[in-house]
Design goal:
Length: 127
């Protein structure tokens, strides 16, 4: 399993719930539908949803805790970007964050306009 960021998240979800041996590329169409059911733990849902296109996170404390829970539940040898992200969020003074290792190639943040319907907030969408 990869030790990095989004690929690690997708690989862990695939291996645990889809029995796809971590082959997230082949299982990608099945990954995000898991958010609608009850199979994922709450911290897995928020961490997975944060990897979606146009996802934004405002509640840094909660998301940092979820990243740490995910890393503990799905350990890997070597580097863990998830815990490093959580450490950064502990003192982050930004208004919100979004990630750019998503399924689209364009720069999702070049046109930073929240007035449209593209962007969404992770914890609000999980309600």
């Amino acid at each position: 399993m990869l030790g990095g960021g989004h690929a690690r998240i997708w690989s862990a979800i695939c291996a645990k719930y889809l029995r796809a041996d971590g082959n997230w590329m082949a299982a990608m169409p099945q990954i995000f539908p898991l958010l609608k059911g009850e199979i994922l733990k709450p911290f897995e849902k928020s961490v997975l949803l944060a990897t979606a296109d146009y996802a934004l996170v405002k509640d840094f404390k909660r998301f940092a805790a979820d990243l740490r829970s995910f890393a503990a539940e799905h350990p890997v040898e070597g580097v863990s970007h998830l815990t490093a992200w959580a450490d950064h969020l502990d003192s982050c003074e930004a208004e919100m964050i979004g990630f750019h290792s998503t399924s689209v190639a364009e720069n999702l943040w070049e046109d930073y306009d929240l007035s449209g319907d593209k962007h969404f907030f992770v914890f609000e969408d999980l309600k």
